[in-house]
Design brief:
By secondary structure, this protein is mostly helical. The protein has one domain. Helices cover 67% and strands 4% of the residues. The chain has nine helices and two strands; from the N terminus they run ααααβαβαααα. The protein is globular.
């Protein structure tokens, strides 16, 4: 559940993610803007950056906006072909990974899944969350989910032979699923909730500082390179 204080940080973190994305994916374009006399119109055509609707979609998804729920669970959105699913999925994956979640993005096509991953791969690397994000086909995700519960062939054989009860199998599945869940159980007492909210807010602030540092380093490096070329 998001608190009001935590929601205030979401647009800032998202801006940092997209700032780094634009710098990494469109870095060379800044040089062409310089050659064009710094025209803002020309810059809009050159720089790879999110469209307004993509930003609004992400903010809504993360609970920022009137009438939205305050939880990340049970979010369902329809984005038509050509409206930028790759950008939305990549930024959402980066945000969730920065918050400590393991992210799985699935697609019906291996080609599209690989293409979308490579679009944001460098962003994931810069933020140090590459190991928390995985793109794959839906079938691969289903196979991995099944495999995480144990060797299905052996478990089924044991169950048919009567060596493994259905209750035991169900318990094993539950333990495997909960052990890998990124969600944390919150105690009901108010003192604990306040402490967790304060800790969470502080954690998000540290992520914001990290984003600012990484974006700043990337921008400074780009600026230094441009100065060497034009000065």
């Amino acid at each position: 559940m998001w608190t009001k204080e935590e929601k205030k940080h979401i647009p800032v973190l998202l801006a940092g993610v997209f700032s780094l994305f634009t710098i990494l994916k469109s870095g060379a374009s800044f040089n062409r803007i310089e050659e064009a006399g710094g025209s803002s119109t020309f810059g809009d055509q050159l720089l790879m950056k999110p469209h307004n609707i993509q930003v609004l979609t992400l903010l809504y998804m993360f609970g920022c906006g009137k009438g939205t729920q305050s939880s990340l669970e049970s979010q369902l959105m329809q984005i038509r072909t050509g409206e930028g699913k790759s950008m939305i999925l990549g930024a959402a994956a980066a945000m969730l990974a920065l918050l400590g979640f393991r992210v799985r993005t699935v697609c019906y096509s291996e080609y599209l899944s690989s293409r979308d991953f490579h679009l944001f791969e460098e962003v994931f690397q810069k933020f140090g969350v590459l190991d928390l994000v995985k793109y794959s086909k839906i079938t691969t995700f289903a196979e991995d989910s099944t495999a995480s519960k144990g060797n299905i062939r052996d478990l089924t054989e044991s169950l048919l032979r009567g060596d493994l009860s259905s209750a035991t199998f169900g318990s094993a599945v539950f333990d495997a699923a909960t052990a890998k869940s990124p969600q944390r159980r919150l105690r009901s007492d108010s003192a604990t909730k306040k402490k967790k909210q304060k800790t969470s807010s502080s954690f998000i602030s540290r992520i914001g500082d990290s984003i600012e540092g990484i974006v700043g380093q990337a921008f400074d490096s780009l600026k230094t390179s441009a100065r060497k070329k034009f000065c």
